[in-house]
Amino acid sequence: MVDGENLGSALRRWRDRLSPLDVGLPVRARRRTAGLRREELADLAGLSVDYVVRLEQGRATTPSAQVVATLARALQLSPPERDHAYRLAGLLPPADGVVSHLVPAGVQRMLARLVDLPVGVFAADWTLLTWTPSWAALIGDPAGLPVEQRNLVRAVFGRGHAGLSSWPVRHADAGMPAALVSDLREALARYPRDAGLTALIEEVGRTSPEFRRLCREGTVGRHVSARKTIEHPVVGDVTCDCDVLTAPGSDVRLVLYSAAAGSPDAEKLEFLRVTGGRPAGDPSTPAAARPATS
């Protein structure tokens, strides 16, 4: 601290304190370090290993706010640590009174232990922040989507492709859009200074008559649960209970899909978990999930 800290040294310190188990990775024998490897951090943050190396060595000195945000999520930084990372990168930290896209460390550790379930983590503006492999297997992998398209409000009320889901989804609860609008109205009351939230509401309001109608009705509440049927191309229809949980002390929401134990839908979820949602004949499907040959 006497010599001054830079972003590279801070990243190394934060990386060294994390166990692979904290981020849902297996601990293999003969690790030379107890913390995360650079390769593991790069994978978690969606960055190249070379870029992470250059950041830590001080050769990449102007990361974008989006890069710092993804690193903060991957490293499970607290809000003060996240703000410190922004300042070390020469950036202004996110302002108070705006929607946070930081996934709390406790939620990330919980998510690492819920890896077998389809779980997505959303911000208060319903932007998808992170998800389990089982979520990608059931819904379709959103990793290839631009960040602005990973938003449930745009997916429900927008035009064209559903965005968050690669396959058609039928909602048994016809009140889900109204609940989503009500939840969004409540978020706007909590974050009136968030320009991104205001822009999202104005954008969807321009393009969706249904959204405008629901806004005029003026109901206030939170989107908490639903029953959905996903038309999966590999296993057919999968009907799940979809529950929305809010982490205490945080505005992030965990959306969990589940089915009754022993039911055909639970068996389909387990098949998708094992295969990653790929057909049984796909060469990349794990051998344990492929049909036996004579």
Automatic annotation (TrEMBL):
Top-level lineage group: Bacteria
UniProt feature, compositional bias: Low complexity: 283-294
Region listing for Disordered, in residue ranges: 275-294
GO molecular function: DNA binding
InterPro entries named in the record: Cro/C1-type_HTH, Lambda_DNA-bd_dom_sf, MLTR_LBD
PROSITE patterns (alphabetical): HTH_CROC1 (PS50943)
Residues annotated as domain HTH cro/C1-type: 27-82
Name of one Pfam family that matches: MLTR_LBD
Protein name (record): Transcriptional regulator with XRE-family HTH domain
Organism: Kineococcus aurantiacus
